[in-house]
Fold this protein.
Amino acid sequence: MKAVFEIGRLVREDLKDMEPYDAYYAPGVVRMDGNENPYDFPGEVTEYMENEISRQFFSRYPDPMARELVRELSSYLGVSPDCIMVGNGSDELILNIMLAFGSGGRKVVIASPTFSMYGIHARVAGAKPVLVDRGPDFEVDVRAMIGAADDEPGVIILCNPNNPSGNTTSLDDVEAIAGAVSSLVVVDEAYIEFGGDTCLSLIGRYPNLVVMRTFSKAYSLAGLRVGYLAASPGVVSELLRIKQPFNVNSFSQLAARSVLKFRHLFRERIKMIVADRDILAERMKLIPGIKVYPSVANFILFEAGEDAAGVHRLLKERGVVIRFLSMPGRGDFLRVSVGTTAENEVFLKNLAAIMADRSKFYNDAGNITEMEK
Ligand SMILES: *Cc1c(COP(=O)(O)O)cnc(C)c1O
């Protein structure tokens, strides 16, 4: 008798409810949902890259250890090369960390709400995500984090500045956690170029600390997938053991090196984005019904009354795409990435118009009035 292939009998039971990651993708609209650098990639950098691409570049495998990039990161960060590893975006590094240190049902303690990929990769690796709630202003609950991690070693994850809330965690808090636990403590600094204090200086003192960064946000390389981490040599060598050999392609290695070489160009853009963020936040606060959370990153979390989903949809209909976030126990929120100065204007104008329209039906607290009920 012919065997019957039933895919349902082969798939992992514990992952059956997972949804594929599919971010909204539509060219031709104002995209303020991905926290990317909104400015065009500098022509000076692409010109430099064109000259650096040699014939062998395409036909040969990339350097699996990305030695040149690691060397340049080493001088950029002031950290020895054996403390650095690069990945196919920091997403891959997160997965590798989970595979190396979190699998077999170990706990991955995550200060939440935060970036969703930590929980997803933890599950894919077979680890057990434990979400520890942040405080009312999204501050890390240090005692609760230590408490959740104290019975067995695993992985603790902090995002600093935190996505989506935009607030920071102090170095004192990171040290309090790293010093109290036997787990690996990962600090994701994807937005550190925009604000907040880096934990890099702590790596020497805490062998369980990992600082993770990316070229995707401030350095405009989201499309080329380059992330890196800095940690003690012992942690790095465990991660190198399990990584895909050719995880970062030659072109991306070159692009990351070129960006570092021309980083002064990006510094100007980062300054502009930071200044525009503060202007954007102030102007959003003036719109009735909007509550803005303070941010040091390149995005702003806000509340827009009872029907954030409706505001999100109306903005999209007007050609402005931002991020809708539903946080269990907290309610619905919106997150807007800081765009170019012109994009910010378009967003503000549309948000103000939508909220003004609504205020006809909503009272000051953002609740639906009798009129509409
Ligand atoms: C965007 C983002 C990343 C993703 O980085 P890649 O290097 O593009 O994979 C990592 N962490 C946080 C918190 C992010 O928001």
Summary: The pocket of pyridoxal-5'-phosphate is lined by residues 35, 89-91, 115, 159, 163, 188, 190, 214, 216-217, 222, 227 (CB under 6 Å).
